[in-house]
Amino acid sequence: MKVKTLIHSKLNDITFDDYNTSIKKIDKYQFVSFDVFDTLIKRDLANPKDLFTIIEKKYKINNFYYKRVEAEKKARTVSGKKDISLTEIYQQYSSDEEINIRLNDLEIEEEKRICAANQQIFKIYDYCLKKGKAIFIISDMYLSKSVIEDILNRNGITGYKGLYVSNEVNAIKSDGSLFKCVCKENSIKSCQLLHIGNDIVNDYKGAIKAGVSAIKIPTRYSTTITNYSKKSSLALSKLEKSRLKELAAFLNNHEYQYKDYYSKFGYEKFGPLLYGFCRWIDEKVKKYNIQQIFFMARDGYIVKKVYELLHPDTTINIVYFEMSRRSIRVPSTNDKDLDFNEMFSILPLLGRGSMKQVFDSWGLNINKYAKILEQHNFSIDYTFWREELETNQDFISLYYDVKPDIIANANDEKEALKEYLGAFDFSLNTAIVDIGWRGSIQRDLISTLNSFGIKYHLIGLYLGLDRFSCKYKKEFLEYNAYGYLWDNLNIHNSVNQERPFVGLFETLFLEQSGSVKRYEIKDGKPIVVRYPYEYEKNGKIIREAKLVHKLQEAALDFARIFDITSTKCLVGYDSKVMFYALYQTLTSPSNEDIKNFGWFLFFNSGDECHLVDKKKSNYYLSHPKEYLQDFYVSQWKTGYLKATLHIDLDYSILYKWLKRIHNHGDD
Question: What is the pTM of this model?
Answer without folding.
Answer: 0.89
